[in-house]
Amino acid sequence: MICSQIILLTFLLLSAIPASERKNSLNLMPMPEKVEFLQGEFRLDSTFTVSVTGGNEVLLNKAVLRILKRLTDRTGLFLLNLSPRIGLDDNIHGMLINSKSPGKNELEMDESYSLIIKSEEISLTAQTDVGILRGLETFLQLVDADQQGYFFPAIKIEDKPRFKWRGLLMDVCRHFMPVEVLKRNLDAMAAVKMNVFHWHLTEDQGFRIECKTYPKLHELGSDGFYYTQQEIKEIVSYAGERGIRVVPEFDLPGHATSWLVGYPKLASAPGPYSIERNWGIFDPTFDPTKEETYEFLEKFFQEMAPLFPDKFWHIGGDENKGHQWDANPEIQKFMKANNLTDNHALQNYFNIRLEKILNKLDKTMVGWYTDAQPNLDKKYVIQSWKGRNSLYESARNGYRCLLSHGFYIDLIQSTEYHYLNDPIPQDSILAEDVQNRILGGEATMWAEFVGPETVDSRIWPRTAAIAERLWSPGTVNDLKEMYRRLDEIDFRLEELGLTHNKNYDMMLRRLAGNADIDALKTFVDVIEPQYTYARDHPHVFKSYYPLTRVVDAARPDPRTARKFDQLVDSLIIHSGKNHSEMDALKGWLNRWKDNHSKLSEIIKKSPILKEIEIQSQNLSRCAVIGLQILEHIKKGIKPDETWINNQSEIIKNAQIPKGETELLVANSLEKLLNEVKSSDSRLFKP
Ligand code: ACM
Fold first, then answer.
1. Which atom of ligand 1 is least distant from the CA of 316?
2. Does residue 319 carry a catalytic annotation?
3. Tens digits of per-residue pLDDT, 404-453?
4. Residues 379 and 521 reside in one and the same domain
5. Is the domain of 275 the same as that of 423?
6. For residue 318, how far is its CA from the centre of ligand 1 (angstroms)?
7. Which of 430, 464, 498 is the last residue of a domain?
8. CA distance linking residue 347 with residue 286, whole number of Å
9. 83-88: average pLDDT
């Protein structure tokens, strides 16, 4: 065949593939607003060069360097030009970047960009530098490979976010997170186009920022685990270079024990106070009736404000039960005298006083949804965590707001659950102005059950799906396609130093006492930590308890369990007639059937694993049931009622959590057994 015929044939083949299917071959997350395929591809070689015009030269230079470093590391290509060329220079083999203006890292920043890849050149243009940063991440996600090497598909992408506020909260108080943990998570946030780092800096269990005006705050309230102001500046700057705003949270008036350790006179009940070591909701609360409280907070905020250039400032405001207020006669007298009829009214009074202080510092207040916000300025931003109705109520009442309900990644819920948690669902009947007040949402990484070693595995990869929910059009909601791309993003995040996958093996090695981890991994791959609110029993947790058990190594929504469950669904849909599904299921079940005998040898030498011994045995028992069911299906003989009931008992037993973990495979087998049991089961039809 001559060359032109090959080209013609390739063209015909490519145009025969529907655009939607070709789109499904892209590993983009979040999916851009508009994607159009062009003809051909851009081949990558070591002469690849980037030229930058416009924007902030220093910021873009660093950003391009970071991207090219990841590109050279990923491809092994010895790129000749790792620094971008600055200024107009279009005579290159590579990418032309043009930023119309530096722009500002603020709520109203323009993050749109346009990326056009043709076989001879790539162009990335944006109104602002942040748009360029977003486009560079898309560019990197497009790298593909074939036998000839690496390439980018020819494509035209026009992209912009659906919501302005796409955040991740990190609680650095329940467990302290060193600077490098924050940096790698900021890198990951930038990789999936998130733009707000919500830094939960104070809690009952720790005061995590250096304060020069009132040094006893960090000296007595932190066990020595706090960020120096230099480190705060470093993180804010690091985030800013990645187009991420930093919103600090100083949680008040409750969740405040650590402040009161050094300054008990600010509390609503006499001290002394000590750092809280348990998890829960506690009584120590600021006294909102004393002028001294406001003088203290004003001076404190004055010192903190220059460290956090963002306009927004989170005052917490959650979970104040007001027990200390109820018990204090002076506070009760104050409430009567000021016609404050209940604790909500008193908290509202407190919030209004804080708002005045913050206004002087040119800060806009953000707070958790409470029932105490009737008279606040409409500038106040409400973060809804108690249910989406509070989101809509706040928006209807004229407040801008954020959704966090449904994005509580600490709770160990499935990626699918978070992904479908759309702040404005497709069928929403909210008026346009109400919709416009919904700024976006935030994933919340509360840190009762995570430390530096495990936190990445609770945030990632699920938060990438939340990032897509908040960036991409609401019509991008196909679950199968989301999971396909998530698996890709999951492993790419490791490139940035994220530890959610690599620490898994390390933790299993430690648990196995350096024995071969194969059997342990086979088991932990199909269990999940229990839903967090169920975990307090049987342990009453304390902040210094270990985070090194099987439940800590286990990960939310584990891939193997998910794939097995999908296979069971497919088997049922295809009436058990699909041989490849049958074989794949058998493969897993045979492996699990024999796993317990291997794992029990390791458990004998590693007492820390004792708590999952029964669970491991249950996995093997469930696998035997699964194999027997498949045998019945293959023979077309429905098992009798007694057999089914006996197996059902075994499976129910296996569903009882052990060592605070759940055996997910038991749920899939329960589904299969229920299908076998049903009178109109398709599995035994000829
Ligand atoms: C919260 O989860 N207490 C805001």
1. 4
2. yes
3. 999 999 999 999 999 999 999 999 999 999 999 999 999 999 999 999 99
4. no
5. yes
6. 6
7. 498
8. 10
9. 80
Provide the percentage of residues in the chain whose pLDDT is more than 70. Answer: 95
CA distances from 391 to 347, 399, 400, 437 (A): 20, 9, 9, 10
Pairing relationship of beta strands 94-101 and 113-117 according to DSSP bridges: unpaired
**Residue of 672, 669, 518, 652 whose CA lies nearest to 594:** 518
Among residues 454, 469, 498, the one where a domain terminates is 498
pLDDT tens digits for range 172-205: 999 999 999 999 999 999 999 999 999 999 999 9
Answer yes or no: do 175 and 120 share one domain.
no
Query: Phi/psi zone of residue 280: left (φ > 0), alpha (ψ -120 to 50 degrees), beta?
Result: left
Task: Supply the residue whose CA is at minimum distance from atom 2 of ligand 1.
Answer: 385
* Phi/psi of residue 578, nearest 5 degrees: -90, 115
**Closest ligand 1 atom number to CA of residue 446:** 2
Residues 101 and 141 in one domain: yes
How many angstroms separate the alpha carbon of residue 445 from the centre of ligand 1?
A: 10
Question: What is the Cα–Cα distance from 414 to 416, expressed in whole angstroms?
Answer: 5
Asked if 191 and 270 sit in the same domain, the reply is yes
Report d(CA 257, CA 205) in Å as an integer.
7
CB 300 within 8 A of CB 357: no
Rounded to an integer, what distance in angstroms lies between the CA atom of residue 128 and that of residue 114?
A: 11
Residues near 324 by Cβ (< 8 Å), separated by ≥ 6?
267, 268, 269, 283, 284, 285, 331
- Of 173, 318, 390, 403, best ligand 1 pocket probe by most atoms within 8 Å of the beta carbon: 318
Q: How many domains does the chain have?
A: 3
For residue 9, tell me if it sits in a domain: no
Count Cβ neighbours within 10 Å for each residue of 496-519 and write b for 16 or more, e otherwise.
bebbbbebbeebbbbbbeebebeb
How far, in Å, CA of 16 to CA of 651, rounded? Answer: 48
Q: Decide: 273 and 220 in contact? Cβ < 8 Å.
A: no
Q: Is residue 32 classed exposed, middle or buried when 0-12, 13-18 and 19+ CB atoms within 10 A define those classes?
A: buried
Distance (Å, whole) CA 258 – CA 565: 45
- Strand 438-445 relative to strand 165-171, pairing: parallel
**Taking CB atoms and a 6 Å cutoff, what residues make up the pocket around ligand 1?**
318-319, 368, 385
- Report the 10 Å Cβ neighbour count for 165: 27
CA atoms within 13 A on the CB side of 18: 3
Q: How far apart are CA 406 and CA 385, in angstroms?
A: 8
| Tokens at 464, concatenated | 């990438």
Q: How far is the CA of 268 from the centre of ligand 1 (A)?
A: 21
105 with 230, same domain: the answer is no
Q: Are 164 and 134 in contact (CB under 8 A)?
A: no
Model's pTM, two decimal places?
Answer: 0.96
Number of residues written out for the chain: 686
User: Is 6 within a domain?
Assistant: no
Range of the domain at 626: 503-684
The token duo for 174 is: 């329940």
pLDDT above 70: residue 4: no
CA distance 477 to 459: 20
Residue 557 lies in a domain: yes
197 shares its domain with 318: yes
Ligand 1 nearest atom to the CA of residue 444, by list position: 2
Confidence of residue 539 (pLDDT cuts 50, 70, 90): low
Q: Which of 456, 451, 442 is CA-nearest to residue 408?
A: 442
Average pLDDT, the chain: 94
Q: Which residues contact 555 (CB under 8 A, 6 or more apart)?
A: 457, 500, 504, 528, 529
CATH of the domain at 68: 3.30.379.10
What is the signed CA dihedral for 62, 65, 70, 75, rounded to 10 degrees?
170
